[in-house]
Amino acid sequence: MSITTSKTRTQRKAAATRQTIIATAKHLIVEGGLNSLTLEAVAERADIAVQTIYNRVGGRPALLIAVAELALEEHNKYMQAALAVEAPAREKIRLIANSYSRFAFERPNEFHLLLDPQGEPEALLRISELIKEQNAKIAVIIRAGIADGNLRADLDPDEMALAAWAMMNGILSLAFRDDQTHYYAKQVPSLIETAISMLIDGLFIEQKNG
């Protein structure tokens, strides 16, 4: 009995340490961006040994993946809030697109992580898989719209979801650039609205009166 209890206690402690490490990594990224995430910084902030990070989570790619999974959980909350609104299909898609841009502006460093984990192949692969899962949810909505006759049946739902994601990322990235295109940043809100209108116009079948 005591051995079982001891093992359970050890497992609970290990799980708690893992959560602390991941939470610390997330805070570092939120506060200072991806460049601020090092194992040494996590170890110092969490007051643990670097080896403990390896033992409980892994190296830097594993930390990036863990934080990306948390970021997508947060993004899901934005998306679910949009999906929960009772609205016509056109407005629903607009709300979903706006929820993505809100996530980018309210959580810029987490958005950057999902966009580009800075040359970490392992993290890039896993984050790409997570993004595919997210886009698949949008594709489901597009398929439903095609089935009820509101959306164009000649468009591939998966490609449309990917195209919409890429379009939004391209526009949103203008808000965070430091080069000569930075002056576009102030135009991003209107550019987003223009892009969403173009997306909706391209998706929906024109409704003719009479």
From TrEMBL:
Matches recorded under InterPro entries: Homeodomain-like_sf, HTH-type_TetR-like_transc_reg, HTH_TetR, KstR2_TetR_C, Tet_transcr_reg_TetR-rel_C_sf
A Pfam family this chain is assigned to: TetR_N
Keywords of this entry: DNA-binding
SUPFAM superfamilies xrefs: Homeodomain-like, Tetracyclin repressor-like, C-terminal domain
The keyword Transmembrane is assigned to this record: no
HTH tetR-type domain segment(s): 15-75
Residue ranges: DNA binding: 38-57
Molecular function in Gene Ontology: DNA-binding transcription factor activity; transcription cis-regulatory region binding
Keyword DNA-binding recorded: yes
PROSITE patterns named among the record's database cross-references: HTH_TETR_2
Protein name: Transcriptional regulator, TetR family
